[in-house]
User: What shape does this take?
Amino acid sequence: MSVPLQVADARELLLGAISISSESGQERAVAEYLSGWMAQRGFTAHIDAAGNAVGERGDGPRTVVLLGHIDTVPGHIPVRVDDQGVLHGRGSVDAKGSFCTFVAAVAGLDAETLRLARFVCVGATEEEVPSSKGAHFAAGQYRPDAVLIGEPSGWEGLTLGYKGRLVLHVKVQKPNFHTAGEGTSAGDDLTEAWFRVRAWAQERSGPMTPGKGIFGAVQATVQAIESGTDGLTQTASGVFGLRLPPEVPPAQARAELTERLAGLAVPEFRGDEVAVRHPKDSSLARALRLAIREAGGTPVFKLKTGTSDMNVVAPHWNAPTLAYGPGDSRLDHTPEERLSLAEYDLAVKVLRGALTRLALSLSGS
Assistant: This one.
């Protein structure tokens, strides 16, 4: 069955982007493709100093930034559209699908909307690695009046916030000794360090009261453990990941865990990200809710336990912010990553309508 020209063009954009490999740090080819597509459709487009694909439309006094990442995790998935109209491929959900939704929606805005606001699409680099290079660079380039982050929420979903993050590296070294003797091994001490970290997380989480949910808890996981000896010295090292709620900022976690591990190990902390949660009654949220209902959907607010570029830009951009994008986030990073083209079409339609409403709201019309 044929589809309208505008829909076909949006699908072509998505298929082209998914067909170009873009693991973190290797986004140049897809950035060139995306900036080229935008330039051919009325955007002022370029690749910025961080390698981001940037396209702008509109000349109104208000600025809306639509920031989505164009890098992916490793793992090749053959690109194909199956008989059910589902696109398979790495990045279809996380999160080139979301960024293509942004670009396609902005490409379809009418002249009146473009007179009221300036829309800046930023396809950011290195979101899937701790550097978040693209988002950090973009944070210093714009002062938006509203922000959309491209992450899968499902076409009816609006993501209000993401948990914070802290990565704890612990290394223990001790002189080698006979296991029949007294004392503890490096592995014993590393295990004790983990027990202390886990106990701290449980204490900081408190009771799981109704309404609090996992978003309000500290989650602690073991990401890696190694041990060995050269015959003279034992070494044991571990990497522990922490997901932090808004009530426990990384600086507080650092101080409290350093105290907990005193005398046992000297911790090293990396990957600080502060949790963020935005209100659900902003002008942006209202515009999206109405557009979702108009398309026959029921808006659903979500809080995510992972992190995203929302965490990076939130300290810099004091503006209504939400994450939006088609697809099931449970498929992120998996061998089964796939996106329904029908859902993608709906998300583009919803977002186009929401941006039109938002521009009117920001202008006071």
Remarks:
- The longest strand covers residues 164-175.
